[in-house]
Amino acid sequence: CIAGMCVDAHGYLIVADSSRKEILHFLKGGGYSVLIREGLTCPVGIAITPMGQLLVLDCWDHFIKIYSYHLRRYSTP
User: Fold this and answer.
1) Contact 14, 6 (CB under 8 A)
2) How far apart are the C-alpha atoms of 43 and 63, rounded to whole Å?
3) Does 73 have pLDDT greater than 70?
4) Domain ranges across the chain
5) I need a surface site. Which of 20, 28, 42, 61 has the fewest CB within 10 A?
6) Domain 2-68: which CATH class?
């Protein structure tokens, strides 16, 4: 169940998946990676601040969790 999503400054989609209890990072050309897998009980919302922080609303913990978000550089063939 996708609970929330946002797009970073470079156009990459960041998704809070509450059923998998993960934060996923989707590339423009396809494919995805798991950004956050540990410490989430029910992520339902997500946002990226201009300062590079990833905010995750975890509803069962009743917290907004703050993570550093660093965009990795991806090269295309």
Assistant:
1) yes
2) 10
3) no
4) 2-68
5) 28
6) mainly beta
CB contact at 8 A, 28 and 12: yes
**CA 39, CA 37: separation in Å to the nearest integer?**
7
Centroid of chain to Cα 40: 12
CA distance linking residue 73 with residue 22, whole number of Å = 21
Per the CB < 8 A criterion, the answer to whether 42 and 28 are in contact is: no
- pTM exceeds 0.85, yes or no: no
Strands 53-58, 32-36: pairing is unpaired
Can you read off the two tokens belonging to residue 51? 């300062």
